[in-house]
Amino acid sequence: MSRRSELTIVFVLVINIACGMARAAAQSNKYPRMVAIDRYLMEKNAEIQFARSAAPDSVSRDATILVLGRQGYETAVEGKNGFVCMVERGWMGTFDWPDFWNPKVRGAVCLNPQAARSILPIAYLRTKTVMAGRSQAEIVSALKAAFENKQLPNLESGAMAYMMSKSAYLTDEGNHNGPHLMFYTPVKDGKDWGAGAAGSPVVSSPYWFFSPKDQSQMKGLPPILVFAVVVTNWSDGTPAGKHSD
Fold it and tell me: What share of the chain is helix, strand, coil (3-state, %, to 5)?
């Protein structure tokens, strides 16, 4: 496979992931509700190593590592560089994403200090309500109440994350994975970054709901636009497309 072909595969996959390319409306949702909690859990040491693989070792080796427990995310390793690495599950995607409850989704991510301070509290609350058996509507309500009561921080400038793990399973679509960087911004129009333009390695998606018909549900939630920038190597330095799972 040529280098250009490899990059094309990664680019198309990241578009599917970051833009939440929903299946046709007539197609039934394979994951309409949460399944048994055990299906989302991992063995602790395996999850620690998986979380570290989100970023190059130079970043992740001194990061705080979280693992998913039955009540939510727990600190497994205390770090010292301000980064936080974890393995996200499907419920960290947009609320209208068909893979929201997909138990196969495992997205290793390393949040930089700014994202750890402003995005991680959202992840904690989302996951706590999920593990308590709440519905998507109840999770959204809990988030809105938390923002209204100033229990969640505003988005910090410079918030970003690494998602470069070979082992991630990000979607049922395509090859399931692709290395990229994520940037969380208050920007309202992805065109300001050239997102989706021909030849651009940048794509964008709203953080909360992808479909325009669901945008009204964002009232009470802060506007966050997420940009994904394709990278050509996995966190261990090997070229994307040169691995088998």
Answer: 30, 20, 50
Query: Which pLDDT tens digits describe the chain residue by residue (245 residues)?
Result: 444 444 444 444 554 555 444 443 334 578 999 999 999 999 999 999 999 999 999 999 999 999 999 999 999 999 999 999 999 999 999 999 899 999 999 999 999 999 999 999 999 999 999 999 999 999 999 999 999 999 999 999 999 999 999 999 998 877 789 999 999 999 999 999 999 899 888 999 999 998 877 778 889 999 999 999 989 999 999 999 654 44
Print the domain residue range for 172: 3-230
Q: Is residue 235 part of a domain?
A: no
Number of domains in the chain: 1
Distance (Å, whole) CA 135 – CA 141:
10
Tokens of 138: 């109840």
Structural domain contains residue 165: yes
244 part of a folded domain: no
Q: How would you classify residue 151: left for phi > 0, otherwise alpha for psi between -120 and 50, otherwise beta?
A: alpha
Q: In what order do the strands lie in the sheet with 107-111?
A: 73-77, 64-68, 84-88, 107-111, 160-163, 180-185, 225-230, 202-206
